[in-house]
Amino acid sequence: MSLSISDTSHASKLSHNQSLKPLDGLQEYFWLSELSGTHAAIIAAEVEGAVSVADWHRAAEALNRNYPVVSTRIKKNPAERPYFEHIAGGRVGLEVIPGESFDVDRELAAQMALSFGLGQDGLVRIRILHGPRRSLVVLAAHHAGSDGKTVVMMIRDFIAAASSEDIGAPIEFLPSLSQRLDLPLPAPYTHTQSNERAGVHHHFQRSRAQVSHAEFAPDELAHLLKRCREERTTLQGALVTAFILAGRELSPSWREHPVVCLSPIDLRPVLKLGGVSGVPLMVHPTVAIPEEIAFWDFARRAKAEISKSQTREGAIAAVQYSAKVVEKEGNPNDFTTIDPGLLLHHDLMVSNYGDYGRTMEFAPIRVKALYPATAFREENTQTVSLITLNGALYVTQTSRNPLTELLAGAHNILLYATTEVLIAVGMPIAEHPPHRSRRA
């Protein structure tokens, strides 16, 4: 039996396992890639205040009730597309460990080393380092079922529920973006895996993802946002430009070849979806060829290009493009069958989760800081995730082969760009103002 979107708004309505729509192209790519290098969407929250272990378990029950993705798994039959299946009684995986001292980067990296596999055993897990006055909550979700905004929504509601706050009605799960765009569901595969080929297993030699983080102080971010408005661009345009420039200073390959930077775009505002969970997401590529870049000119160009994708037409084009990535049946155990045309290949991703103001303060606890993160299986891809809370911008870099000064370089470039009109790619990082990022 196939359910419509409206039928899935509350997992408790399902008395037995029922199948939902097939995964869209981008979701299927995430599903295929999970074994060879987890794509999990992860967020860590530093929580201040007294919370009991019982409070955390009660909060997990609230998530179980309010987020159908918790009661969802991914199934696949040979020669057919993978699909979501709701399972009665599904629960978030919860681990609570005593400990008030923690290393945020190490905890994020540890979660990235834990694959969700084929998604058959649940799509959400939470690990808590619990102390009497301070805790670290790390929420990880299979990227085929949750985007960055979904994990932020879940961790906010989880922490709110731990403080006994009412987190409201159940959140709608959006399994199919194609349906909301009035597009047909993904077509059958043009080529399927033979039984012999489907059994191929490659031993993956992926390096462990490494994580580092930094922070823009509220005054730094306020000045940057003001300058972005004056220059008729966006924070995303400035961020993309700064990280491309910083990477060029560190990587000969980035100086000699075009650099592809992906910007994830949340389609909820475009499609008027409100606060749904799922993956209403597309990615927009910005390409920088090997030439001098004037900072604000390039930032304006990036903004103009990205804005074209923030439309219904852009969303349709993106869904159709991602469908090409999975035209042929792939094998999660054989990475040579995953995006063989390199249609989603990129050197850099800059993902901005948005500004959450002061919405994460709950008596008697508050979220002091947030650290979003995700990783890609490609060895040299640099993934940068950002989120704003209480006026500060928290930045996390993840890579299996990191450019180790990327955060410092981009930070310095952005600080310089708030006071200078132009910045050229040839300017060494040493000429920028001293790096002033803050580390935990």
Describe the overall structure.
By secondary structure, the protein is an alpha+beta fold. The chain folds into two domains: 5-198, Chloramphenicol Acetyltransferase (2-Layer Sandwich), CATH 3.30.559; 212-348 and 399-431. The chain has 13 helices and 17 strands. Strands 5-6-7-2-15-14 form a six-stranded mixed sheet, with helices on both faces. The chain has a six-stranded mixed sheet with strand order 9-17-16-13-10-12, with helices on both faces. Strands 1-4-3 form a three-stranded antiparallel sheet, with no helix packed on it. A hairpin with a 2-residue loop joins strand 16 and strand 17 (392-399). The longest helix is centred in the middle third of the chain and has 16 residues, at 235-250. It is globular, with a radius of gyration of 21 Å. The model is unreliable at 1-16 and 421-440 (pLDDT under 50).
* Biggest sheet layout: 6 strands, mixed
Determine the structural class based on helices, strands and strand pairing: alpha+beta
* Low-confidence runs: 1-16, 421-440
CA-based gyration radius: 21 Å
Let me know the CATH homologous superfamily of the largest domain.
Answer: Chloramphenicol acetyltransferase-like domain
- Taking strands numbered 1, 2, ... along the chain, how are they ordered across the largest sheet? 5-6-7-2-15-14
Helix/strand order: EHEHEEEHEEHEHHEHHHEHEEHHEEEEEH
* CATH architecture classification name of the largest domain: 2-Layer Sandwich
